[in-house]
Amino acid sequence: MADVKQSSKNVGDLVLSRIDDMSKVGLCLPEGYNVTNAVKASLLTLQEVKDKDGKPALDVCTTASIQSALFEMCLRGLSVADKSCYMVVRGNKLCMTPSYFGRVKEARRIYPQWNPRAVVVREGDEFLFEVDPATGEKKLVKHEQKLENLDNDFVGAYLYAPTLDGSHNELHIMTKRQILAAWSKSSSKTQSVHKQFEERMVQKTIINSVCNMLVNSHPENSRFADNSDDPNAPESTDEIADYEEVVDAPEALPEAPVNVDAETGEIKNDPAPEAPAQAQTQNNDSDF
Q1: Tell me, what's the pLDDT at 89?
Q2: Cα separation of 107 and 96, whole Å?
Q3: Which pLDDT score is estimated for 221?
Q4: Which partner from 109, 124, 172, 271 sits 20 to 30 angstroms from 84, CA to CA?
């Protein structure tokens, strides 16, 4: 074990040294990002990471792949310590996979004022949108939802996000079929987390999809483009990561009848004193 710790320490030192050299010739890391802490936290985590056969990652992964995964993590300003990324073993290579939190963090570095609030559309809702024939952009015309509809099956979701030039917000819509297609690519075949936390997972899926588009389409991030077409790509080899993200995710939809501003996507609610107490409770344990 001593040899393993020493080997991983050497890899970490090499990554930090390379980052330091590149910083001297113009490399800029995200503001407030502590690269040393991120690397050290990852090295501690790697001692517990195993492949699908239960073998330690440090035993089966090549040194080059470990160094590459840590280096990409640093360049993207992510860290396993805040769960913005995970280290996953694929064959004999270690891969750095951005998490849901990581994708949102990257997108908000580009558009700091953007607050991703996904709205789930359910059976019985009155939902109407139109498409601008000149630009192809979608525009929300109306979305009315009653309290009793919250227990109905979902039929889709939508989210407002900035355009590439940041000039205005654009409406993004995903149908139930598209969302289920994303879920089918999850590492979990039973999808127990998806079923138990359906609304949060629907929100997470469309937020992931839009964040991928925002980050991958930005010129400065083209070298880190994620070629995956799966907006709900697995972050780890089990369901623990999904569960942690779901229960800690920002509350995107209040449990009350919603009235959505068709121009901005802002959720406006009239006071409802007769509503159950839990309908007024929101999850504030969020990084965003």
Answers
A1: 93
A2: 18
A3: 57
A4: 172
DSSP class of residue 104 equals H
Length of the chain: 288
Dist CA 21 CA 17 (whole Å)? 6
Q: Which amino acid is at 161?
A: A
Q: Provide the strand spans (E) within the chain.
A: 85-90, 93-98, 119-122, 126-131, 138-145, 154-162, 169-175, 258-260, 267-268
pLDDT at 258: 45
Are the CB atoms for 59 and 65 separated by under 8 Å?
A: no
Sorting pLDDT into bands at 50, 70 and 90, what band is 8? low
Whole-angstrom distance, CA of residue 40 vs CA of residue 164: 35
Task: Classify residue 145 as exposed, middle or buried by CB count within 10 Å of its CB (0-12, 13-18, 19+).
Answer: buried
Distance of CA 99 to the CA centre of its chain: 5
Please give the Cα distance from 157 to 86 (Å, whole number): 27
Would the CA dihedral through 225, 231, 236, 240 be positive or negative? positive
Distance of alpha carbon 60 from its chain centroid, rounded?
28
Q: Where is 206: in which H helix or E strand?
A: helix 198-217
Note the pLDDT of residue 278: 36
What residues form DSSP beta bridges with 188? none
Q: Given a cut of 70, is residue 210 above it in pLDDT?
A: yes
- Look at residue 12 and give its three-state secondary structure: helix
Residues 96-111: tens digit of each pLDDT: 999 989 999 999 999 9
Q: What phi, psi does 79 have (nearest 5°)?
A: -160, 140
pLDDT in tens, 130-142: 999 999 999 999 9
Helix (H) or strand (E) holding 36: helix 35-46
CA–CA separation, 110 and 88 (whole Å): 26
